[in-house]
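Q: Could you fold this chain for me?
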Amino acid sequence: MSKHRLQLEEEFDFLAFGLSCHLKDYRVAWHLSKALKIDFLRDLKKKNSDHLDLDAFAKFTAKDEDNHLNYIILSNQNEDAYLFKELKQYDYFIFVEGYLDIFDESIFLELLHNVESFQFVSVMDSDKFSKIQYTLFEE
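A: Sure. Below is the predicted structure, expressed as structure tokens.
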């Protein structure tokens, strides 16, 4: 008798944005908190991925309970290395996860462009972050 295994690969639906600026991580979180009117908190939980040690990179999270959205700011660099070497033109990544059907990406992008300290903001392909998506969104 043969055995059959069911393998499920759950993928998270999320939007990714790349951000270039010369600000410290806590200042980026402060500007986004002010613009979105939600509080970003530094994530101090220890999380390891099979591929990466995300603890070495600054991470801030915020929950928008009204719109059922989660926001994550993740630094692309620390003192020693880049999280994604192929994306080193970006200093930070902003992820939006949750009920994306009501999320207006163009308004959010305009909001990011209106922050004077942010030099460059762009929409990114979320497939580039597939190797960290499980570690990134687990609570």
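A (continued): Residues 14-137 form a domain with the TATA-Binding Protein fold (CATH 3.30.310).
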